[in-house]
Write a structure and sequence with these properties.
The protein is mostly helical and 492 residues long. Among the domains are: 88 residues, no CATH class; 61 residues, no CATH class; 105 residues. The chain contains 24 helices and no strands. Helix 5 packs across helix 6. The longest helix has 38 residues. The two termini are 55 Å apart.
Length: 492
């Protein structure tokens, strides 16, 4: 997007309630500038896509080239005023910022009693949420104002202030150190983990050695403990220690349970902690805690459309993952309409890869429930999404399409598409073992002489794919699990 698109994107991000609040605020300003801003807002709100030329034309004013740029700024500020009010009500951090603004307003008006009361409230909130930098500023403000009002306040007050500031500095120093270590590790993990370069190994070793000197119970503060656990969970991933990874992810969820005030904070995110626990459980194929954790996810309160979109994306993705791994494919069918409705609702906020995964998994569920028509419909949704497909989703959808055409009796299409798929994978230097075996056995089944021969080939097909799966059960070929499920249904 170009910079001039920003106002368009901001307006398109507004919820119905935010739009209502904007109109109520704008109505309070009865002047020509605000009336023109409302007109600009309504023009942009109705446009399906950004077109600055069309916006200026619809404004239909003689001096549009001069008026339009400052009008965008004015409208942007009006909208941000509404959004700030909403954020200040939902974010503890923003509540503290608002209280600090109130403190300066009270000071200007000489309302000392209310000012000191507000400082005390802000310090308590900042302490509860471990906003160390804000606490330091508030304590300095508290000290200055009290000394201005009463120079005889005494040495004890100054000693207590100094002690508290030293404690804050120590806590902030520990948190900052763990934060720096985490981001350094995360950066190397995301950029260099596949290469296993000498620098990557050295950095991981240095961080591991430093972090090993600490024990969770000895670390003070929620945020410092969170960074400590997150570092250890990443180290477990690097070392492919799935059990340790799950253990640290469980600790992170427990950390939020011990500090419930942080569950509504933006960072670190309680939603992310629950999702990381689900990911770690899935890696070990342990699904007994999924229902309870999914329930926790569904109970999270969202304060914006973006948060609602993220929650829908994560909770639905892992719900479908759980249903697939517990072979409850019929329950996936039951939630398709809800998934479709939310994909439309959050279209601008969902990653394309997540939408493609939804369509692919729904297609698999329909196929395994013998609904070949809808299975084919969702396979086509994957192929026609109009984006560069992820390789794993492409392979899954392509193999599923072969099985659909096999089931509905299109042998010519099966032959044609299997050849194209194998040729395409080879052109990308990817392994084609699963695709070649599938093509081979589908051809043999089509040419079988009788039912007994067909059953024998299906049994052999299943045994062959299970052997392929056993080569690397923790990371089998794409679509291998689903193919085995289909073969098992054939060999009952």
């Amino acid at each position: 997007m170009r910079p001039s698109d920003n106002l368009f994107l901001l307006i398109k991000s507004l919820t119905k309630s935010e739009k209502r609040e904007f109109k109520l605020l704008a109505q309070r300003y009865k002047n020509s500038t605000t009336r023109l801003a409302i007109r600009l807002y309504e023009i942009i709100d109705k446009l399906p896509e950004f077109d600055e030329t069309k916006i200026i034309q619809k404004l239909n004013i003689s001096n549009a080239a001069t008026v339009y740029p400052p009008m965008k700024v004015y409208l942007h500020r009006l909208i941000m005023r509404i959004l700030r009010n909403g954020v200040s009500e939902s974010s503890t951090h923003m509540i503290i910022i608002q209280l600090i603004q109130d403190i300066y307003i009270y000071e200007e008006r000489g309302m000392n009693s209310l000012m000191l009361k507000t400082i005390k409230k802000a310090i308590t909130l900042a302490s509860d949420m471990e906003e160390h930098h804000l606490m330091a500023m508030l304590i300095e403000l508290d000290c200055r104002i009290k000394l201005d009002q009463n120079i005889n306040i005494g040495k004890e007050f100054l000693f207590d202030t100094e002690h508290l500031e030293n404690k804050i500095f120590k806590a902030q120093k520990t948190e900052m150190r763990f934060r720096h270590l985490f981001y350094r590790l995360w950066l190397h993990y995301k950029l260099y983990r596949k290469s296993k370069s000498k620098n990557f190994i050295e950095q991981v070793s240095l961080i591991r050695n430093e972090i090993s000197a600490y024990d969770l119970d000895e670390i003070e503060g929620f945020k410092a403990q969170w960074y400590f656990l997150r570092i250890n969970s990443v180290l477990a991933n690097i070392e492919d220690d799935k059990s340790a990874g799950l253990r640290y992810c469980k600790h992170m969820v427990n950390l939020f349970d011990h500090h419930p005030g942080h569950k509504n904070d933006n960072f670190p995110s309680y939603r992310s902690a629950l999702v990381n626990f689900l990911v770690a459980s899935h890696r070990l194929r342990q699904y007994e805690d999924f229902p309870a954790t999914l329930k926790r996810l569904s109970e999270i309160e969202c304060n914006s459309e973006r948060e609602k979109a993220l929650l829908f994306s994560d909770s639905t993705f892992y719900e479908i993952l759980y249903l697939m791994n517990s072979k409850q494919f019929d329950k996936i069918i039951q939630i398709i309409s809800n998934v479709e409705a939310n994909i439309i609702r959050y279209k601008q906020l969902l990653p394309e890869s997540r939408v493609l995964t939804f369509y692919n998994n729904i297609a698999i569920a329909c196929f395994l429930c013998l609904d070949y028509e809808n299975a084919h419909k969702y396979v086509n949704k994957v192929f026609n999404y109009g984006t560069e497909l992820r390789t794993d989703i492409l392979r899954s959808a392509a193999l599923l399409e072969l099985l659909i055409h096999f089931e509905i009796g299109n042998p010519t299409i099966v032959i044609y598409k299997s050849r194209n798929l194998i040729r395409e994978l080879k052109s990308r230097n990817e392994t084609t073992k699963l695709e070649q075996l599938t093509s081979k056995y589908l051809k043999r089944i089509r040419g079988s002489a009788n039912r007994r021969d067909t059953n024998r080939i299906f049994q052999e097909f299943q045994e062959t794919i299970e052997l392929l799966h056993a080569v690397n059960p923790n990371n089998p070929p794409v679509f291998c699990d689903e193919l085995i499920l289909w073969l098992q249904s054939k060999n009952k």
